[in-house]
Amino acid sequence: MSQATTTQPPSSGPATSSGPNAAAVASAYTSALEVIAAVEPDVAAAIKGELANQRRQLKLIASENYASPAVLLAMGNWLSDKYAEGVPGHRMYAGCEMVDRVETLAAEHAKALFGADHAYAQPHSGIDANLVAYWAILAKRVELPALEEAGAQHVNDLPKDAWDRLRHAFNDQRMLGMSLDAGGHLTHGFRPNISGKLFDQASYGVDPGTGLLDYDAIARQAREWRPLLLVAGYSAYPRNPNFAVMAEIAEEVGATFMVDMAHFAGLVAGKVLTGDFDPVPHADVVTTTTHKSLRGPRGGMVLCRGEYAPFVDKGCPMVLGGPLPHVMAAKAVALAEARRPSFAAYARGIVDNARALAEGLSRRGAKLVTGGTDNHIVLMDVGASFGLTGRQAESALLDAGVVTNRNSVPADPNGPWYTSGVRMGTPALTTLGFGPSDLDEVAAIVTDALRATQPASATSKAKYTIDAAVAEACRRRCAELLAAHPLYPEIHL
After folding, report:
1. Which pTM was predicted?
2. Is 224 known to be catalytic?
3. 346 an active-site residue?
């Protein structure tokens, strides 16, 4: 597996370094909040309150990060006022020259960063990116053959009976993706999400003994299920899937291979994950968010082989509403940042810090799913470790100044709402400049807080009690760490 080699704390990220533009950043945010407060002071107060919260809590949410002031400022401008359905050079509205410019910049940065044939920067979120990908695959694999058989150029040219057959064919396709309790995502074909209403879905899991993917078992299941679409990628799997092996499985059964790299895109961009562990050379279609480990604005993106590009580019109006040009501008800024050499050091730091966190937790008696991590995620079984549900542990840690999220573990006895696990990730703290020794102290804070926590009722999976003195001591320790690595230090509100 690709290994991170850096042992020194990573350099501070764009959310911590004042730099030569510190005064301009401070002025920009002060002025912006004054303008907002003149219209709706409660909104301005909430924005200030959010910054205060983020400055006083250790952010261990694996799917969150801190975007740079440049990324954040790129979203607050008059590009927001433009409608731009279509793609650069082919819009349904006039006057989109500057939108074309920022969307092209975002796509070109993405192609260069990831080595992709094609990049589509319009999706508003990860769910939107996955929906664009699913419908692009269906358009190529199901709709196009139906049009060719009917001798038609467009679905509007199909007679009613042919259109009815095609509509039924869309909803008669099979998907194979990672199960939720093994670390998969709701958008990978599960019933509460629209993807589960679109596809006939089956799930592959992990080895019950090791918690690791069993590729032979996945291959056997794929041969039996014969899916149109094989999906890889995760939201809570602390190891690195072998995408070369998964691509071979997809090819054997005639499936399109799609990877959702929303969580680990920054590790791919920073060249921590290469070869068999980089999905882009192996997958037909790759989706991602642009926040999380990529450290950009909240949004999505689709990368694909050239043969899928014409279908992906129809994402609007096929799935998406009007593009968000201001967010695409911020994506372009973030992707430009990710192409800098410093981002590779940042990505290596994420993994170093995750390993330090995992080792610190294990050394203090916590049980981790798979026993550790190879990426940015640490998944702790708080039921086995502390006799708590994930819901109880998540709430107690928040009292102690640590923000996490509860998460299922394989074969979770508490189900997906209360869970038995807590998921932690290191992208955000690494952006602040935390190093391995800091993450060992974070592990100590987490275990101290959870050992001081007890279920409050034998009948409630949510209620808990935490020793108030321990919680207060943990908050002080969090404050000391954050004081050494301040968030947006140039901004004083």
Report:
1. 0.94
2. no
3. no
